Amino acid sequence: MKRNFPLLAAVATCALVLLGVSHAGAGALDVEITAAMDHLKAVKADADLLVLTDAPFVRPGARSALPELAVVEKLTGCTVGSGNLLFFQRPQHHPLRFLLFARKTGEAVIISAAAGQYAAEKLNMSATTIADKAFWDQSQQFAAGKDMFTLAGIANAWAAKAPYDFLKCAELHNHICPGLTSGYLLAHYLLERHPLAEGERYTVVSCPV
Ligand SMILES: [Zn+2]
Description:
By secondary structure, the protein is an alpha+beta fold.
């Protein structure tokens, strides 16, 4: 069965394209993204707007979600090159999800796909708000509740203008935590204080606390 998986996935993808299912989904996504930008008072290519998504990793209907990502890129103007399009990793079967986050207010809209439909959840995700335990109790009721730790942490690191290489570490690690932060600081300490000479290399020996 495993051997047939790529072929089956390819056939399924073709069928979806022929039926126009992916276009129907993208259409609904258009509406949700536009409404979210209105809610956040964001304009296209707004430097204070972040898109954070698992689109490169999940496979809704056993196909790539890159067409949906292209729609979001086009409408928001958020790009990797501008530093305001970030990713988080999830398994292929995980829901496709887009967080739109406004730096100045902490207002956020999370758009999630379920059964070909998109649903938006609005919330405040500012540093002050997420420092309150009540936020974590209440946000677990959201469809995106299980992703909230990842979304709120990375979005606020971006809002605080964390260095881009730190945000890349967060994308790899999937959340902000003391382990990530201390590792980043240690790595930069080494790079600054113990730069490699010709023929040298770093060897990392680490263990859990
Ligand atoms: Zn961690």
